Automatic annotation (TrEMBL):
Ranges for domain 2Fe-2S ferredoxin-type: 4-109
Organism: Pedobacter albus
Coiled-coil regions, chain positions: none
InterPro entries: 2Fe-2S_ferredoxin-like_sf, 2Fe-2S_ferredoxin-type, Adrenodoxin-like, Beta-grasp_dom_sf
KW Aminoacyl-tRNA synthetase (keyword) present: no
PROSITE patterns linked to this entry: 2FE2S_FER_2
Protein name, per record: 2Fe-2S iron-sulfur cluster-binding protein
Keyword NADP: no
Assigned protein family: Belongs to the adrenodoxin/putidaredoxin family.
Keywords recorded for this protein, A-Z: 2Fe-2S, Iron, Iron-sulfur, Metal-binding
Pfam family of the protein (one): Fer2
Requisite cofactors: [2Fe-2S] cluster
Superkingdom as given in the UniProt entry: Bacteria
Length: 109
């Protein structure tokens, strides 16, 4: 039986780490998956790359992600504590290539 699930390791803001199984066949973004997994992600703009409240720091697997768009870069650039590995979870569509991704929820703004 072929599976469309991937493994993603998530570190919350308190340092707790969990390994989650995420489906790649439902068209979900990482933000939608994290919200469904009951992580404290505001996602105020609903995934339109307009608020940066779904920011995550990619700890491992950055090379597996799609290239950052100009809109995503512009929004991240507004964060005072931006890291080189920060991304907007709403702009990361779950895909089989992301298997093994490790992210940390970005500090609250």
């Amino acid at each position: 039986m072929e599976t469309n699930d991937i493994s993603i390791q998530v570190e919350d803001r308190e340092g707790n780490v969990a390994t989650l199984t995420a489906p790649t066949d439902m068209g979900l973004s990482l933000m939608e998956f994290l919200k469904a997994s009951e992580y404290d992600i505001l996602a105020t703009c609903g995934g339109m790359a307009l608020c940066a409240t779904c920011c995550v720091d990619v700890l491992e697997g950055e090379e597996k992600l799609n290239e950052m768009t100009d809109d995503e870069y512009a929004m991240l650039d507004t964060l005072p504590d931006l890291l080189p590995n920060s991304r907007l979870a709403c702009q990361l569509q779950l895909s089989p290539a992301m298997d093994g991704l490790k992210v940390r929820l970005h500090a609250e703004q």
